[in-house]
Every structure is written in structure tokens, then in C-alpha cells.
Specification:
The chain is an all-alpha fold and 304 residues long. It is built from 13 helices and no strands. Helix 4 crosses helix 7, helix 9 crosses helix 10 and helix 10 packs parallel to helix 11.
Length: 304
């Protein structure tokens, strides 16, 4: 009996590995754009995890080495204070990825919870929640972020990466909440949901066991898209000087470059273009990778 139990457990584990790892990776490998996006994202993750341990960061000013062009010693040249630009990019990568992921995660959690609660409750609760959601949707997101960030700085409050992530998701959850609510309203009419309710199964069981598996692919896609939006907003706020300076932060580098050089041409161009290119390439990688993730979850795309 013990041998059969062990073989059964091993079989379940192998089936799970095949369903959750092997088959998705196989589907991903058939899409060249998705593979390219995956490799780009993987490179940035490796840069954020391993890079700071390999590439030293020296922020000591050395004006004699200011504005040096790219070379073997300085792959992306030096900034106006003679500091290595590539080293700053490497040490700024963890901050960028962590904030983007946390902001995307908070956005998805709020949007999913609000959408499920509103759609499943229905009636007056649905009306009130969706009214609030519609109001949030009408608020221009980035200008509101600018006002709040300026207020926090003016109040002397130190904005860490967790506060920054919460700030970036302050309005971005509303669109997801409305979309999830629409899907819940559709799923509620399915026969198996009615059967579950007739059998007296609890709301939590119905939501997590019956409804969540159907909307999980959509939530995963929105996590990636929310990360993309959070990156834009975070870099924008840092570039405008509306968040506290963090050494190596790509947006802060752009802010300092424009403050000192004031142009994207000439001797200071690398200090502006390097972080801008880093952000752009990461965004492209996430977009391409999201297309592959959509293909994994969407059977119609796989058929095409």
C-alpha cells in the first residue's frame, strides 16, 4: 500500500509539473515574440538579482572623469560627476522591478476583490461599489499621483518602495474591477454555479473553487499590464523630482541628467538615453511576454 501511495503522489506531482510548467513553456517556445520577451524579462531579473553583487557602485564624485564616452571600463560612459552610468543602472534595477511588481500586485488584488465582491453580491451593493469605481475611473491618474507625491514630499514623509507601490495603484485598480465584475456576472449564470448554490456550498468555496479558476488567466494578464503602467508612472514621478532621490533609480538618473545637461544631445546624452533605453526595453519585453502568456491561457490564440 505504501508503495502504491508513493507512486500515486509521484504521479500527481509529475502531472502538476507537466500541466503548470512543461506545457506552458512548450507553448511559449512556439511564439518567437514571446520567447524574446521572456528572455528580456529574464535578463532584467538576473541583472537585478546578480548584478549588484558583481558590479560595484561608487558614487564618489570625480569631476576629472566626467562625461567620458562608452569604453570597456565604462560600458555606458560616465555622468556629470564622473560616476559609472552602467553601475547605476544595475543597482537601480532591483528598485524598479520590485516597485513595478508590488504596484501591479496591489492593483490586481484590489481590482479583483472589488470586482468579485460587487459582481457576486449584486443588487444595491453592486450599484454602490460600481458607482464609486466609475468615479475613480474619471479621475486622471498621473496628475493625481503628482499632487499626492508633491504633498507627501512637502509634508516631510519619506516614501519607501512599499508606499510608492501603493501610490501607483491608487486609481489603476478601477478598470480591472469593472472588467472582473462583468465576468462574474456572466459566470454566475452558469449551471454549475447554480448547482453549487443549490447544494449549499459556501460563498468562499464557490468563489475560490468555481469562479477564480475561470478568471485567473485574465488576472495574470492584468498583473503584467499593471506592471507596465506602474513602471511608466514611477519613472515619470522620479524624473519630475516628485519622489525622494534613490541612488541608481532610472527615473532619478533622468531627472539629474536633464537638470544638469538639459538636453539629450551632446556630452551628457548618455546619462539621459541610458536609463530611458533601459525602461523602454523592459517595457517591450513585458509586452512581448504578455502576448505569450495570453497564448498559454487562450485556446483560440493557440489554434491560430
Amino acid at each position: 500500500m505504501e508503495g502504491k501511495t508513493k507512486r500515486s503522489i509521484v504521479g500527481i506531482m509529475l502531472s502538476a509539473v507537466r500541466a503548470w510548467i512543461y506545457e506552458p513553456l512548450t507553448l511559449l517556445a512556439t511564439d518567437k515574440r514571446a520567447v524574446a520577451g521572456f528572455l528580456i524579462v529574464l535578463f532584467y531579473v538576473g541583472l537585478a538579482v546578480i548584478g549588484p553583487m558583481v558590479v560595484p557602485l561608487d558614487l564618489t564624485p570625480n569631476l576629472e572623469r566626467a562625461y567620458l564616452p562608452p569604453s570597456l571600463e565604462h560600458p555606458l560612459g560616465t555622468d556629470p560627476w564622473g560616476r559609472d552610468i552602467f553601475a547605476q543602472l544595475v543597482h537601480g534595477a532591483p528598485d524598479m522591478l520590485v516597485v513595478a511588481f508590488l504596484a501591479g500586485l496591489v492593483t490586481v488584488l484590489i481590482g479583483t476583490v472589488v470586482g468579485i465582491f460587487s459582481g457576486y453580491s449584486g443588487g444595491t451593493v453592486d450599484l454602490i461599489v460600481m458607482t464609486i469605481t466609475d468615479i475613480v475611473l474619471t479621475i486622471p491618474g498621473f496628475p493625481l499621483l503628482m499632487v499626492i507625491a508633491a504633498f507627501l514630499i512637502g509634508s516631510g514623509i519619506e516614501v519607501n518602495i512599499f508606499m510608492a507601490a501603493a501610490l501607483l495603484s491608487i486609481t489603476s485598480w478601477a478598470g480591472l474591477a469593472r472588467a472582473v465584475r462583468s465576468q462574474i456576472l456572466s459566470i454566475k449564470k452558469e449551471p454549475y454555479i447554480e448547482v453549487s448554490q443549490t447544494l449549499g456550498l459556501g460563498k468562499l468555496h464557490i468563489i475560490f473553487s468555481e469562479i477564480m479558476p475561470n478568471i485567473l488567466p485574465y488576472i495574470v494578464m492584468n498583473l503584467i499590464l499593471s506592471m507596465i503602467g506602474a513602471l511608466y508612472s514611477y519613472v515619470g514621478l522620479m524624473a519630475l523630482g516628485l519622489l525622494p532621490y534613490r541612488p541608481g533609480n532610472w527615473g532619478a538618473m533622468m531627472h539629474m541628467a536633464m537638470a544638469v545637461s538639459g538636453t539629450v544631445t551632446g556630452v551628457g546624452s548618455w546619462y539621459v538615453l541610458a536609463p530611458a533605453a533601459a525602461v523602454t526595453i523592459l517595457q517591450i519585453g513585458l509586452v512581448l511576454f504578455s502576448n505569450g502568456v495570453d497564448k498559454i491561457f487562450n485556446p483560440r490564440l493557440r489554434e491560430k
